[in-house]
Write a structure and sequence with these properties.
The structure holds 2 protein chains of 2 kinds.
Chain A: H1 6-16, H2 27-43, H3 50-62, H4 68-79, H5 86-97, H6 109-112, H7 116-125, H8 135-148, H9 151-166, H10 176-187, H11 189-202, H12 209-243, H13 245-252, H14 267-295, H15 302-309, E1 330-336, H16 342-354, E2 361-367, E3 371-373, H17 375-380, H18 384-394, H19 406-417, E4 425-430, H20 443-451, E5 454-459, H21 473-477, E6 482-485, H22 489-501
Parallel strand pairs in A: 1-2, 1-4, 4-5, 5-6
Antiparallel strand pairs in A: 2-3
Helix pairs in contact in A: 1-2, 2-5, 3-4, 5-13, 8-9, 9-10, 9-12, 10-12, 11-12, 12-13, 14-16, 14-22, 16-18
Chain B: H1 8-17, H2 24-36, E1 40-43, H3 50-60, E2 64-69, H4 76-79, E3 81-83, H5 85-95, H6 102-109, E4 115-117, H7 119-125, E5 130-135, H8 142-154, E6 156-159, E7 163-166, E8 172-177, H9 185-189, E9 192-195, H10 201-211, H11 217-231, H12 241-253, H13 261-271, H14 275-285
Parallel strand pairs in B: 1-8, 1-9, 2-5, 5-8
Antiparallel strand pairs in B: 3-4, 6-7
The chains are: A alpha/beta, B alpha/beta.
Chain lengths: 502, 300
């Protein structure tokens, strides 16, 4: 058991404690803050064990808590053991330890400091210190700060902008996004970029050609991104002061990337998922290949053993084994790509093709009420993302009215490709089985199941919705070797593991 | 407490003397590892300086670097120690003609000359300060991971024939992982976790300047900007720091002081190692280039 040094903790308290915590001098308070912090991390889904909890306590003793970076590094290294949990950690960290953030500036905390009431009063008078700066002047100052990348100044200006544009009201139960949106709209990032660009051109900082233009553009966007983060931090700081860390953290809680629902992902989450797919498949492929090799150790290679025994005077001291080459399954993917489940199909196709090296052959079809084979798109391009894009735009999948008709699609599939299904084939069907009250034609699945090695169905809907409304998943399900709920990357990864091993 | 470093700043400054630029997070974790005597687990994409960190730590603390390269199938006999049974066998055979008691033979063949020391045992027995690098720990099987856990938690090992050997000191331990598989929670729990990612513009620029001192400030800035731009594309394999450095060197050898589209087009293959990535980058950055190599070559 380690004892936490009270003096250090008091020190920490006085600099970092949230507003509602008692003032410094109370050792328990810092412990409380840390416990609250860790509790919130757990609530956000991070697996923080008891050991790690204690490690964090020991770790903060060793860092000079005035140094925010070191303090954050200490907590991060002891509490966060998965990279994709880092964002969630950062958010919670900001909420719990941002109030008296270091580096506020020489004026101390009073000018920067925040007091909702006085802000209210200021707005009521229609002026005050901030009121004297016109939007145009603010924009000019921002431009200057962005050009010279003066972070201190930017931080101050971000504070001003929030004062002026966010229109924050105490006690109002809205998240930071709303205020952020209001502030950013007024700041007019596009306009700022254009002005920075113009300024840079005048001074001859931008070379000729598209490339130079692009690089300059990206540089300005990166700077604006920093400004955006400062504004966000400022808003968060004020919200925490108003509502307390706990309540704030609760509003900000978001699913971890592996738990993001395919069907309800925001644009940003979609991009994050896209990026996550490739590394994930690579890791999975490596793991599966390894496991497959190990599962079958192979039998004794007699010749090789005898050959090696010669170096020990004929004693077979080193037995040698022959490693078998395991067979890889052949995969057929048949995916519904109608509106409601399109993004799910896209992810799954991308995932399966990224794993193509694990299968001897991958073929794919997409359908709505008509069905079209799309294997060619993936063969023609090295780039899976591009192929999936072509699937969405070029595949011929509408037969009558463009509403899902599983029955018809399956019938056509049976007619053309039944013969190509072999006992080595695993078939994966993707869709929510919402058949718009058409006939299910599930005899097709029955026959396919008999012929194929496995027949799986992946449904992106929560299990609770199955067989409600026009969903007829059970009618199909009786002929499948497995029907899986597949709403997020975690479930998809689990499923692919089953297929490769099966 | 080992006290190799005085403060977090001390870490930064001393690592800088061996041309390793640590950001505050890296320095913070290294400092903690020293104080808490815990191993560091470094994860991140290939080529962001994970192994390099261990080497740099060895250099600045004046310690010898002992490296255990992990691979699939690594086991106790390759990681810890092994009796040299071929030699033992020969010894027994050579003894056949003489009259020696079994006890004599036994005490003889299970003695120091017949012991093959592998990196972990070497690290435990070391008298001088060392840094232990366990590279690509994600490649070993779960069972071997358990072995690592055991050694790392007590820093001692029992050899039945020789007794328990305890380490005289706690070395700095750095484990790296490319994240090809999820490491066990037990292992992660015992480590300080450090994720290294591609550096931001400023740091990358500094790294280029430090590693390729002949490059001037402006070119370094341009290099860093182009690399940042390329990394934003959706690629199979984004350029690593070492590739950035290679690229800067290439530009230098070609005598280019400035980057224009033609130069990028011709030298993009230094940054990117997949044909489809090169094609994509050319298209996005609108640069021309010679014909692509016939087949995408694997990375170094």
């Amino acid at each position: 058991m380690h004892h936490v040094n009270p003096a250090k903790l008091d020190d920490a308290m006085s600099r970092f404690g949230p507003a509602d915590a008692p003032p410094a001098g109370d050792r328990e308070s810092m412990l409380d803050v840390l416990q609250g912090f860790i509790h919130e991390l757990r609530a956000a889904g991070l697996p923080v064990s008891m050991t790690e909890n204690l490690d964090a306590m020991r770790a903060v003793e060793h860092v000079d808590i005035g140094e925010r970076d070191a303090f954050k590094a200490a907590l991060g290294a002891t509490l966060v053991k998965h990279h994709h949990h880092w964002r969630a950690f950062e958010t919670v960290f900001d909420v719990y330890f941002s109030l008296h953030a270091a580096g506020v500036g020489e004026e101390g905390e009073d000018t920067e400091g925040f007091d909702l009431e006085s802000m209210e009063a200021m707005r009521a008078q229609g002026g005050g210190a901030m009121g004297e700066v016109s939007p145009e002047e603010l924009a000019q100052m921002l431009l200057q700060a962005l050009t010279s990348m003066d972070r201190e100044q930017l931080r101050r200006l971000a504070g001003m902008a929030v004062d002026r544009f966010a229109g924050m009201e105490p006690g109002r139960p809205v998240g930071g996004t709303y205020y952020l949106y209001r502030t950013l709209r007024q700041l007019d990032f596009d306009g700022l970029t254009a002005r920075m660009m113009g300024q840079a051109r005048e001074q001859g900082d931008v070379g000729d050609g598209d490339l130079a233009e692009r690089l300059a553009q990206e540089e300005f966007q990166a700077r604006l991104q920093q400004l955006k983060e400062l504004v966000e931090a400022e808003i968060r700081r004020r919200l925490v002061a108003d509502r307390g860390a706990e309540a704030m953290a609760r509003t900000l809680r978001k699913p971890l990337p592996e738990d993001v629902d395919f069907m309800h992902a925001s644009r940003e989450e979609m991009l994050a998922l896209q990026r996550a797919i490739y590394p994930l498949t690579r890791a999975l492929a490596a793991r599966l290949a390894q496991r497959r090799r190990r599962r079958n150790r192979g039998h004794l290679d007699f010749r090789s053993t005898v050959r090696h025994s010669l170096s020990y005077g004929g004693v077979p001291a080193e037995p040698k084994f022959r490693h078998p080459r395991p067979s890889r399954p052949e995969i057929m993917v048949v995916a519904d790509i109608s509106g409601s489940v399109a993004s799910f199909a896209r992810f799954t196709l991308q995932f399966v093709y990224a794993m193509a090296s694990q299968f001897s052959k991958v073929r794919s079809w997409v359908f709505i009420d008509g069905i079209d084979e799309v294997t060619r798109f993936f063969q023609e391009s090295d780039d899976i993302g591009e192929a999936v894009h072509r699937v969405n735009t070029e595949a011929d999948v509408v037969w009558v009215d463009g509403h899902s008709d599983y029955g018809h699609a399956f019938e056509v599939f049976h007619e053309h490709h039944y013969k190509e299904v072999t006992p080595k084939t695993s078939i994966i069907l993707l869709g929510d089985a919402r058949n718009n009250y058409h006939a299910s034609q599930n005899w097709v699945l029955k026959e396919l199941q008999q012929r194929a090695r496995h027949l799986y169905w992946l449904n992106p809907e929560p299990r609770g919705y199955w067989d409600t409304g026009d969903s007829i998943i059970s009618e199909f399900g009786i002929y499948c070797d497995g029907v899986y709920e597949c709403r997020n990357l975690r479930q998809l990864e689990q499923f692919v593991t089953t297929v490769v091993e099966g | 407490m080992a006290d190799r470093f005085k403060s977090v700043d001390d870490v930064v400054e001393r690592l800088r003397t061996v041309d390793y630029l640590a950001d505050p997070n890296i320095a913070g974790v290294v400092y903690l590892a020293d104080r808490l005597e815990k191993p560091i687990l470094v994860e991140g994409p290939a080529g962001v300086g994970k192994t390099e960190l261990a080497k740099a730590l060895g250099d600045v603390t004046g310690a010898r670097l002992i490296r255990l390269q992990c691979y699939e199938g690594l086991d106790e006999s390759k990681a810890l120690y092994e009796w040299n049974y071929k030699k033992q066998l020969l010894r027994i055979q050579a003894d056949r003609e003489h009259e020696t008691s079994w006890a004599e033979v036994e005490s003889d063949i299970f003695s120091e000359p017949f012991l093959l020391t592998r990196p972990l045992l070497e690290a435990i027995r070391a008298e001088e300060p060392i840094v232990l690098l366990i590279d690509e720990v994600d490649r070993v099987e779960i069972e071997t991971e358990a072995l690592l856990l055991e050694v790392l938690s007590d820093f001692q090992v029992s050899i039945p024939e020789l007794g328990t050997i305890a380490g005289k000191q706690r070395p700095l331990v750095v484990m790296t992982s490319n994240n090809t598989r999820e490491l066990s929670e037990a292992l992660k729990r015992r480590c300080l976790y450090l994720h290294l990612d591609y550096p931001d513009l400023e740091r990358e620029k500094d790294i280029v300047r430090v590693r390729v001192p002949e490059v001037d400030d402006e070119l370094a800035e341009q290099v860093a900007r182009v690399v940042r731009s390329v990394r934003q594309l959706e690629l199979k394999k984004a350029p690593s720091i070492s590739e950035t450095i290679d690229w800067a060197r290439t530009l230098l050898y070609l005598g280019k002081n400035e980057i224009d589209p033609d130069v990028i087009g011709e030298t993009l293959h230094v940054l990117l190692k997949y044909q489809s990535d090169i094609a994509k980058a050319r298209k996005e950055l609108q640069v021309e280039g010679g014909p692509l190599p016939a087949r995408s070559s694997a990375g170094p």
